[in-house]
Amino acid sequence: MSKSILVTGGTKGIGRAIIERFADEGFDVITCSRNEQDLAELRASLEENHALIHVLAVKADLSKKEEVLEFAEKVKAFSIPDVLVNNTGVFIPGAILDEPEGNFEMMMNTNLYSAYYLTRALIGGMKEKKSGHIFSIGSIAGLTAYANGGSYAISKWAMLGMTKCLREELKNEQIKVTSVLPGATYTASWEGVELPEERFMRSVDVAESVWSAYNLSPQSVVEEIVIRPQLGDI
């Protein structure tokens, strides 16, 4: 039976790079996005380049709890994933004291609560199989305070804390848990920034790190992956 990977927010950037890396290894793919056109393009690309895999691509806004739970039911009907990558996220710069009203709630709902509710909805199936690997895509903003990081940084610190708790809760269930904490990666979040592309990390490097961590023996787990641009943070 083929294995499957679920990557939330998988149509662009790091999420897409992870999907393509695992699809290259024959994994069935489950993903979601708010943009139906992006989902259709991803599905078509995967089916063209990986004829033997199955793809479930669902339009869903994971900032809304009810849509997270609806998505989880569709996932369970398709396949309990062997790999769950909580990747959905949004970044809006701003300082805590003067960022627009609602930024905090929106980024916590998208960056943290989506992962919390989805993991809770799917973990029962992983426990039954006594296997699985959960990756949380955080950020170095969850390790270091940055000016103008505001609610984004708060949500990423909280994501790291949640992932550490999951690691402790699931270690005896043979389910691995890994925090992925990338620095500035060349994705849509950095569009319009006047810096050369070479100054950023590549999404495929993050994907390769996830693939490598997944491939350790059952006796070992990478608890945290911290990746930064060679020339330092931006």
Description:
- The chain has 234 residues and is of the alpha/beta class.
- The protein has a single domain (4-227), classed as Rossmann fold (3-Layer(aba) Sandwich), CATH 3.40.50.720.
- The chain is 42% helix and 15% strand.
- It is built from six helices and seven strands.
- The chain has helices at 13-23, 36-49, 65-78, 103-129, 150-170, 203-214, and strands at residues 4-8, 28-33, 55-59, 83-86, 133-137, 176-182, 224-227.
- The protein has a seven-stranded parallel β-sheet with strand order 3-2-1-4-5-6-7, sandwiched between helices.
- Helix 1 (13-23) packs across helix 6 (203-214), helix 3 (65-78) runs parallel beside helix 4 (103-129) and helix 4 runs parallel beside helix 5.
- The chain is globular, with a radius of gyration of 17 Å.
- The N and C termini lie far apart (43 Å).
- The model has no long low-confidence stretch (mean pLDDT 94).
Mind sketching the topology for me?
Layout: E1 4-8, H1 13-23, E2 28-33, H2 36-49, E3 55-59, H3 65-78, E4 83-86, H4 103-129, E5 133-137, H5 150-170, E6 176-182, H6 203-214, E7 224-227
Parallel strand pairs: 1-2, 1-4, 2-3, 4-5, 5-6, 6-7
Helix pairs in contact: 1-6, 3-4, 4-5
Q: Which tags fit this structure?
A:
about 230 residues; alpha/beta; Rossmann fold; seven-stranded parallel β-sheet; globular
User: How many β-strand runs?
Assistant: 7
Which homologous superfamily in CATH is the superfamily?
NAD(P)-binding Rossmann-like Domain
Q: What separation lies between the terminal Cα atoms?
A: 43 Å
CATH class: Alpha Beta
